[in-house]
Amino acid sequence: MKLVVLKLRYFFVLSLFASLSQVSAQDSHEDTPHNEIQFIENKGQWPSVVQFQSSVSGGKLWIGDSAILFQLQDLSDLHKAHYDLKNVENPSLKSALIQQKFLGSKSDKVRSVEGRSTHYYNYFLGNDSTKWTHDVHAYAKVEYEHFYADIHLLWESEKNALKYSFFVEPGANPNEIRWRYSGEFTSVRIRDGRLIL
Description:
The chain is mostly beta strands and 197 residues long. It has one domain (4-196). It has two helices and 15 strands. It has helices spanning 11-18, 76-82; strands spanning 4-6, 39-41, 52-56, 59-63, 67-74, 94-103, 110-116, 121-123, 133-136, 138-148, 151-158, 161-168, 178-183, 189-191, 194-196. The strands form three sheets. Strands 1, 2, 3, 4, 5, 6, 7, 10, 11, 12 and 13 form an eleven-stranded antiparallel sheet that branches. A two-stranded antiparallel sheet has the order 8-9. The longest helix is centred in the first third of the chain and has 8 residues, at 11-18. It is globular.
């Protein structure tokens, strides 16, 4: 059965990351193809509503069961002080949080991953060793089957840009795909095609 591909890309939201500062070199890994964006699994190091986290240009992406949190960060003053070795008085570290909530998504969706990283992360947060996690891997793709009735959602990276696609099976209703944004829109503006915090 051939799937009808319905690609919904909200260029505004995804371009939020492209127009901010680049992720530092320490966030990249040699075994990641072309330093593509990867999705780090949650094994207890973050709140349970988070399933995956990605470091992207200009911030972080937190993927939950039916919502995404875009943590936008302008770290340009920090980069000037650190990489350019400039003295920055009263550095400004700006950030904004924007949530994309998928309305009416199914609760029994099936999650699968692909492209497990050879590298791994260890999280030793706080003094309680029962909350420490190790051997945490990242993945190249995350798919949610039956995100809506007969509609699947795929997260992946393409040319170091975040991408998500909805795959709509024949007979499924693409009008079920709905979302709402909430968050700190007042601190975000666009100038010369670039996002400014």
